[in-house]
Backbone:
């Protein structure tokens, strides 16, 4: 298994420096990671640094809490695409979800999908599975699976609980085949990364990508 091609090499801390982005992109090229995921102000820089590589540039929308207005999320998406983002990881409005306002969530995704797909970009929808009930996760699978998204993503990494193999398995069971899963939040070891892939994840968002790949030296993994 080429684990490197599952990894979105990530840095999203609010104190991120230009030198952090330079190191992130250098490592991404060295290990041939699937993508880097960077704060919106660094999309242009990352895109330039990754030119000529197979590594995509991803950024976050409505991050990390998801309660930005729909119009604000669309504005963020448009700017990210202008800056060169290939992939967009958007947090849903968790306040709407927890208040059982599924109509708001449907309206949100229905306004956003045409904007993204007009430019043929990849969209990953973050549901923050660690703070949801199983029933809420299943409802998300139904709603976003029908919306035509590319990936359903477990977590931002900022909630009290990140990715879990159980959540990934539940999502895989209830999503259409064409919707992939990205696991993120607390992925720091090769063993956990492998568990998530075995559960059905096709992308892994982690800041420990290099450490995980170095752990493959003592396994039968190939990269």
Residues:
């Amino acid at each position: 298994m080429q684990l490197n091609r599952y990894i979105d090499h990530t840095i999203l801390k609010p104190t991120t420096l230009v030198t952090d982005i330079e190191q992130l992109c250098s490592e991404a090229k060295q290990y041939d990671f699937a993508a880097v995921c960077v704060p919106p102000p660094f999309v242009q820089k990352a895109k330039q640094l990754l030119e000529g590589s197979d590594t995509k540039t991803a950024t976050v929308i409505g991050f990390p809490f998801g309660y930005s207005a729909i119009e604000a999320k669309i504005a963020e998406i448009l700017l990210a695409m202008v800056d060169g983002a290939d992939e967009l990881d958007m947090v849903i409005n968790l306040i709407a979800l927890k208040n059982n306002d599924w109509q708001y969530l449907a309206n949100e995704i229905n306004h956003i999908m045409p904007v993204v797909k007009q430019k043929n970009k990849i969209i990953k929808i973050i549901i923050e599975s660690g703070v949801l009930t199983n029933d809420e996760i299943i409802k998300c699978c139904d709603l976003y699976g029908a919306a035509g998204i590319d990936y359903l993503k477990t977590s931002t990494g900022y909630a009290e609980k990140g990715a879990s193999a159980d959540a990934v398995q539940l999502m895989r069971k209830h999503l259409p085949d064409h919707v992939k899963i990205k696991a993120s939040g607390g992925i720091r070891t090769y063993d956990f990364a492998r568990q998530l892939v075995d559960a059905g994840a096709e992308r892994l968002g982690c800041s420990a990508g290099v450490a995980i790949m170095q752990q493959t030296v003592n396994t039968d993994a190939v990269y």
Notes: The chain has a mean pLDDT of 96. The chain has one domain: 3-218. The radius of gyration is 16 Å.
